[in-house]
Amino acid sequence: MKKVLITGGTVFVSRYLAEHYVAKGYEVYVLNRNTKTQSEGVHLIEADRHNIGNLLDGTHFDLVVDTAYTKEDVECLTKAIHSYDDYVLISSSAVYPETTPQPFLESAPLGNNCFWGIYGTNKIEAEKALMNFDKNAYILRPPYLYGPMNNVYREAFVFDCALSGKVFNLPKDGEMKLQFFYVGDLCRMIDEIIDKRPGQHIFNVGNKEGISIKEWVTLCYEAAGKEVAFRSIYEDINYREYFPFYEYEYILDVEKQNQILQKTTSMKDGLKEAFEWYQNHQSEINKRNYRDFES
Fold first, then answer.
1. Peptide linkage before 142 cis (omega within 30 of 0)
2. How far is 76 from 133, CA to CA, in rounded Å?
3. Residue 181's closest CA among 214, 207, 148, 217?
4. What pLDDT digit, counting tens, does each position of 253-284 carry?
5. DSSP 8-state secondary structure symbol assigned to residue 47
């Protein structure tokens, strides 16, 4: 039985990953401080990742999937782990400066992005730390991730608007495009990488095409079984005051991913699954107050 180590394992991406590998019949270990409910079927390694000590001594992992945010996160884990076959770091598209020509290629220069700030620069340092430790590790750079277990108030915000029958406050004409990636496809991409072991070790991952925010909101309403009515907001107001994304349009080049992962989940199907999960897990979502423009 293959052994997998997941850092975290209790929130969104890491939790989905843990349950994905449990369902595949793997022996799944999660490393966290045990402050949240653990998924069924996992083995808990209770520790702060900055103080693991000798808890990983004597254990060989076939796969390590790390959601590290910083250089220190990576360095502490790599010092504590002694034996593994494959290491995958979930990084972010935030590593690309907004001034870089688009679509962003994996080979594009990395640097500060004014929208993501320290989150992006910390991910850059985490990537460097891992590559210095293991040049054969893999790094994945997703755009906005979505799907079941998403505790970030994005699609769930639109679901709430849909169920309450609200007119949706749409930034301007709604033609700004965003790029998404279904969390289940992220798991499948990791599976394909470990199976095929490509020579490339850094991948942009995401849906091939972007989607306008108007179309995205419409699909969210449809997933909730509702029709949407829009109110276009042209006032000079920060999008984040009333909408769950920045006023920032970008696209990743995912051709290298598409050579490995032949098919990705449609937004319609992904949002349907997200809504089905949301209905029974609303208390797990980090909700926030957005400005309304009701007349």
1. no
2. 11
3. 207
4. 999 999 999 899 999 999 999 999 999 999 99
5. S
Separation CA 87–CA 79 (nearest Å): 14
Nearest to 52 by CA among 26, 22, 72, 35: 72
Per-residue confidence (pLDDT) for residue 294, from 0 to 100: 76
d(CA 112, CA 120): 7
The type of residue at 68 is A
Kindly report, residue by residue over 201-255, the tens digit of the pLDDT.
Answer: 999 999 999 999 999 999 999 999 999 999 999 999 999 999 999 999 999 999 9
| Cα–Cα distance list, 270 to 125, 155, 232 (Å) | 31, 11, 26
Q: Would you give the DSSP letter of residue 146?
A: E
Q: Both tokens of residue 228?
A: 């949407």
| Domains observed in the chain | 3-146+181-204 (3.40.50.720), 155-179+209-249+264-284 (3.90.25.10)
Name the token pair of 233: 């907001």
Query: Could you tell me which residues are beta bridge partners of residue 19?
Result: none
**Per residue in 93-150, pLDDT tens?**
999 999 999 999 999 999 999 999 999 999 999 999 999 999 999 999 999 999 999 9
Residue 81 backbone dihedrals phi, psi, to 5 degrees: -90, 135
Tell me 226's DSSP state: -
Beta strands in the chain (DSSP E): 3-7, 27-32, 43-46, 60-66, 83-90, 138-141, 144-146, 168-171, 177-178, 180-182, 202-204, 211-212, 230-233
Looking at residue 7, its amino acid is: T
What is the model's pLDDT at position 160? Answer: 97
Estimate to the nearest angstrom the gap between the alpha carbon of 127 and the chain centroid.
16
